[in-house]
Fold this protein.
Amino acid sequence: MNRLTYIVLILTAIFAPWIATHDVTAQNLIMRYSAPTAEHWFGTDSLGRDVFSRLVFGARISLEVGIIVVAVSSFIGTIIGSIAGFYGGFVDKFLSGYLFNVFLAFPGLLLAIALVAFLGAGLNILIFALCVIGWVGYARVMRGQVLKVREYDFVQAARALGASNMRILFTHILPNAIQPLIVQASLGMAGAVLSEASLSFLGLGIPAPAPSWGTMLEEARGLDTLYSAPHVFFFPAIAIALTVLAFNFIGDGLREYLDPKQRKR
Amino acid sequence: MEENGNNLISLQNLKVHFKIGGGFFKEAKVVKAVDGVSFDIKRGETLGLVGESGCGKSTLGKAILRLTPITSGRAMYKNRDIANISESEMLAQRKNLQMIFQDPYASLNPRMNVGQIIGEPIQTFGLQRGKSVEAMVQDLMETVGMSRRFVKRYPHEFSGGQRQRIGIARALAVDPEFIVADEPISALDVSIQAQIMNLMERLQAEKNLTYLFISHDLRAVRHLSDRVAVLYLGKIVELADGKEIYKESLHPYSKALISAVPVPDPEIEAKRERIILKGDVPSPINPPSGCHFHTRCPYMIEECKRQTPSLVEIKPNHFAACVRISSDRPNIEANEKDGLGAIGS
């Protein structure tokens, strides 16, 4: 089921232009708040735009934000966290003692809102803001893992066998430390999708005509709409929920695949 | 101990101290894991290192290979002080000094297959290139008694004994002269222990290896070692030929340790005299004054609390560190003050 959601989501994002039935920005004021019909599968919104087509293109935005944010922030977090855990001492004291704590002390979404407010709304700014608040979680997990794995005998063995620090870090420590990061990344993907929707909902994400799921929810916010045209918020809400759920379960699959002990012989 | 051209390894007053704890509000404590150890290891011999857990055996073994930072002292390898050379100079020496680890489950990277594990040192030292790495790996596998078919398998697919063979093959890959074997058999079944010990003996004969054999298994040490050093709380208390130390140990601690080895004959076992020590090993954070052993020694006198005995030659090639033992009086003469209640049968 999760795999299905995931595959559907990815295919939808890739083939959005072929799947969408209407132009996502085409307004049709006569057809406002139309209930689902054969013409408009998920109905239309307050400006008569096709909800189904907007959802399809919204998947692109959600995935784009999720993938880029997770890739960039986990990469930065892995590097900084590994350095802190591997070298220890003053390096670790500075990184995990000061830098991590400064970032953890800010409420994440508030910091993102501040950044977006300061730099202006837009897809790139949104991704940047989410990376700024996102990397420290990966760094913290990675530091703890590296701290643990570097004491293993096989790391000592590698040192005794003349391996350089870089080799020890990249071939011995990281592959054995990365597992929780994969789980963290799948959760982070869900988190990024949610944060993007939240910021867009608050009007601080992707500017209006673009079909972000958060923006769609925001447009359906009025109490009247909830009663008279529930399809306008129902479908984006379901899309967000399913996406977040699916990402939360991908981590398990990846972890099983990456662990040679669980790989089928 | 005098200089000898035959010595491969020579430790001189080697100390490994760790700082633990310590933070904003409290001062760090110092653990004296190895506290002034001196001994020589001759080329081609096996020196057994015995002692209770926590006495610093493994730390000493790792310190010789610089896997743990040395606080002070000298560790001579072929008249080169490897305790005080730079990290890059040490890297070149690592080819000659290898280690076999205690836990064969933890000492192999679970994400590398056997070929990669054994092949790693061959590649890092550039001993072979390309296809010949694999050939060398397979030769090594045969040397340690493993089928070359297993080259693509992962560590979790092997038993403890086979993993230990992989670990030995990895250590042999760089063709070392000296190997620290840190309790190489204590994680294995008894039947496998014998196999691994025989393998180590055979390799020693074939490749003229020198071993530091660390163990708390006194029978294994007796079987493998030419000489035996007894470690107590980071200090050597006795050092002698393997046979001699089992027949007539001098230091009260060694006596107690050796008397604890069970004899497989029930009649002899029943009559055997055992020395049971009081209490546990004191913490190396705050070791007792004077002779570290005085808190548990049945022959303790006032002087033991004040005077730290040094390791002296009592008989030819038989060293012991005890205030009450000297070359004139190699045996402690019991007097009424001795806590003989601690000795039972």
The first helix of chain A runs from residue 2 to 14. Chain A touches chain B through 19 residues (CB under 8 Å). Residues 146 and 174 of chain A are 7 Å apart (CA to CA).
